[in-house]
Amino acid sequence: MSHDAKKAVGNNYSHREPEFYNKWRRLFLFIVTHVFYMIRFKLVYRLEVYGRENIPKTNDFIIAANHLSTLDPPLVCAVMNKGVAYMAKKELFQNPFMRWWLNWLGAFAVDREKLGVSTIKTVKALKKTDWVLGIFPQGTRQEPGEISNVTKGFASLAKSTKCGILPVGIVGTQEVKMLPFTGKIVVRIGEVIPYSDDVEGMVDNWGHAIQKLTGFKYCGMHSQS
Q1: pLDDT (tens digit, 9 = 90+) per residue, 28-51?
Q2: Residue 188 and which of 82, 87, 166, 209 are 20 to 30 A apart at CA?
């Protein structure tokens, strides 16, 4: 596949209309996260969740969690009472199976180098459904103990779409366990951080909230946008 063709594939999956998030996609996500993954979380990791009362009834917010492992995306979906759509790097949509899988999970393609108009349109479209955007401000998985390499793109997106930020602190997913009751995962959901024109202030508010929720030290914002 040529470079232009690969770019076109990513672009074709970067914008979602509200109709995309239908009941069948919601059912598929529920089965994957609330059934298959939740069994593992409960049986192996003795999952504990605190702060569900902080989840807004409306859809004008973005879920922003710290990132420790590949278990984090399905974990966040499993503890929420809403569908959670994630941004996935556009290169993943070049693989036919991954494209099918990500489509059914409600994900959409994003260019990591810049925040595109299509991304903003998709987040605004989500506000008309029973889904919300899920994002990991650290971008990639980090070692526990510190909240570092935080970029400000998620706060810019919150400002552009007039969405609050729901901080979610995750502890324990980095430990790979297989035997029943050998792991321990704790998820704490904080209070919504209102959107504002102060992007860097929102980032710092999120970092301090995650520090309080996890006990990890917030090391400040990375310079990347």
Answers
A1: 999 999 999 999 999 999 999 999
A2: 87
What domains can be seen in the chain, in order of their start residue? 3-218 (3.40.1130)
In total, the chain counts a number of residues equal to: 225
Residues 69 and 174: beta-carbon distance below 8 Å:
yes
CA dist 195 and 192 (Å) reads 9
Torsion sign, CA atoms 153, 90, 81, 48: negative
pTM of this prediction? 0.90
Q: How far apart are the C-alpha atoms of 63 and 86, rounded to whole Å?
A: 10
Please name the helix (run of DSSP H) or strand (run of DSSP E) that holds residue 206, with its range, or none.
helix 199-214
pLDDT digits (tens, 9 = 90+) for 200-225: 999 999 999 999 999 999 987 754 43
Q: Which residue do the tokens 């998985």 mark? A: 141
Q: Which of 11, 9, 16, 150 is nearest to 83 (CA)?
A: 16
State how far the Cα of 70 lies from the Cα of 63, in Å rounded to an integer: 17
Q: Are 167 and 209 in contact (CB under 8 A)?
A: yes
Residue 39: Cβ within 10 Å count? 11
Residues 19, 64 contacting (CB under 8 angstroms): no
Q: Which of 143, 139, 136, 151 is nearest to 220 (CA)?
A: 151
Distances, alpha carbon 42 to alpha carbons 21, 34, 99, in Å:
28, 11, 29
